Amino acid sequence: MSNLWLLMKIQIQGILFRTTTHRNKKKKAAGFGMLILLAVVFMYMSVVYVSGMVMAFPEGYQYIALYIMGMVTIFMLLIFGYQSAGGHLFGFKDYDLLMSLPIKKSEVLVSKFLSFLVLEYFYGFFLLAPSIVIVGIVCKYGFMYYVLGLVAWLLIPLVPMVIAALLAYLSMYMAGKFKYKNLMNNIFYIILMGAVFVLIFAYQNLLGQEAGQLLDLLSNIERYLPFMSFLFDGMVFGDLLKYLLGILINVAVFGLFVGLFSKNFMKLNSPNSYEFHLHQFGYKVKNFKLRATKANSSFKALFNKELRTYFSNTVYFMNTAVMPILLVIGFAYLCIFMREEMNIVRNMMPEIIMPVFCGAILLLALMSCTTNSSISLEGKNFDSLKSYPIDVMDIFMAKMSVNWLVIIPCALICSVMAVIFLNLSLGDFLLCVLTTLTSSFFISSLGLILNLHFYRLDWDNAAVVVKQSMPVWITTIGGMVVAIGIIFLGVQLTEYLSATMIVVLMNLVLLLFDIAFFVYLNKGGRKQFMKIH
């Protein structure tokens, strides 16, 4: 049993507490403090969102917020579970090490399962626990409601965990058939997160709706998510038969998956097995072809290298590309499904449309930075990169070009939709394009400068530098604050300046910063790059 708990601790620490494993006590404490801060912020956001939803629903129907948050929880658990299942349950790198230790294979299997389940409980707690407590307080449910709610919190993550694990296995299997495994992973992430984003937008429209529409929503949830709704029916209405049926469904699905996985655990993870070989190397082995390659310019070669790094690292891609894509999805939803409301706002306050829209583009750009970790991601290969007979500015421009590729297409799509659906003029469109160019260069060069001065090359997991390094936090939080501040200032200045003049001034300031950043990169940036070792 001691081996099992030790293995579980190591597994959970490897997935969740990457920043707390550093030998330096100060860095370890800082990493743990950052995790606590993130947990507090996430809990606060969840409490605020659920409270607003409950208060907006009609009297006697506040309990429906529990079902909605349960559905959102399932979607989010699918996203987090899919991200963690690959490499944890299937094809994990420490297989040979674990099998060589004097421990039972069953303990390895159980530790993998339980650590993965604990991770799902951790994520589910911040989404589901606030909704259970707030709905219980508002609706004045008794003690039994909370007891059943605790059991429901333990059961609801089981089915999403199974689905996430099966999707992760399917992704690994398809890697043996197709060339671009990571592209498939990224597309799946985008679809899932886009669905959650649209779901949140759609249910915002339910606030203030009539009771009949809310009951229709409830019936649809019960039809498609019975394993969740049966548990909530038992909590809210005291229907113990449905509650027991919900328990049976969740336990049966999870038990069936555990049984199948246990029988095939060795086959799926052993490097000597055919299945593992097919999953990891199948496409490369079956489709190997020797052919001539064309010579590229140094910039093009560097740019292709940066693109491969970007799309092959799922954490890197998802941490930077999701926000622009979700903003495009959200803006498309507003333009298509809320076109009348948008036009009403435009007719009532036409003077603020352009500052707000260009501010939204600015927000899109300033919260989507790939360069803030691009130097650190070189890792052990940095010395080789520095020794190449190429101009340092080519390296900088290649890294920034990836960021432009992420930001500019998404911003232009939003601008085109604004012209089509909001009847923006050609001049307004050109101002949007100008904002896109100045803001994308601003955040790309700023992120690169920060990473040149605050770099980390000794990482053992890319998530440490992609999600938790100082340049990432500065550009993410600072970018959001700057963008919101500019939007607020622009709205205030509408009393004194025209919308066009406000946007022109904003771009002029950004352009001045862009020139200053470029000059620094060409001089000080070169020197700092050569100092890194």
Annotation keywords:
533 residues, mainly alpha, 2 domains, globular
What report would you give on this structure?
The protein is an all-alpha fold and 533 residues long. The protein is 79% helix and 0% strand. It contains 23 helices and no strands. It has helices at 2-16, 25-56, 64-85, 95-100, 105-139, 143-155, 158-175, 181-204, 211-224, 226-237, 240-263, 265-269, 274-286, 298-312, 314-337, 339-348, 353-366, 382-387, 392-421, 426-453, 462-467, 470-492, 499-531. The protein is globular, with a radius of gyration of 26 Å. It starts with a helix and ends with a helix. 35% of the residues are buried.
Task: Furnish the topology, listing elements before pairings.
Blueprint: H1 2-16, H2 25-56, H3 64-85, H4 95-100, H5 105-139, H6 143-155, H7 158-175, H8 181-204, H9 211-224, H10 226-237, H11 240-263, H12 265-269, H13 274-286, H14 298-312, H15 314-337, H16 339-348, H17 353-366, H18 382-387, H19 392-421, H20 426-453, H21 462-467, H22 470-492, H23 499-531
Helix pairs in contact: 1-5, 2-5, 3-5, 3-7, 3-8, 3-9, 5-6, 6-10, 7-11, 7-13, 8-15, 9-10, 10-11, 14-19, 15-19, 17-20, 17-22, 17-23, 19-20, 20-22, 20-23
Overall morphology: globular
Please count the beta strands (DSSP E, at least 2 residues each).
0
How far the N terminus sits from the C terminus, by CA atoms, comes to: 45 Å
Which radius of gyration do the C-alpha atoms yield?
26 Å
Q: Percent range for helical residues?
A: over 70%
Low-confidence stretches: 273-279, 281-285
Please count the helical segments.
Answer: 23
Q: How many domains would you count in the coordinates?
A: 2
Helix and strand sequence? HHHHHHHHHHHHHHHHHHHHHHH
Oligomer: single chain
Biggest β-sheet: count, sense, barrel? Answer: none
The overall pLDDT average reads 77
- Class per helix and strand makeup: mainly alpha
Q: Approximately how much beta-strand content do the residues carry?
A: under 5%
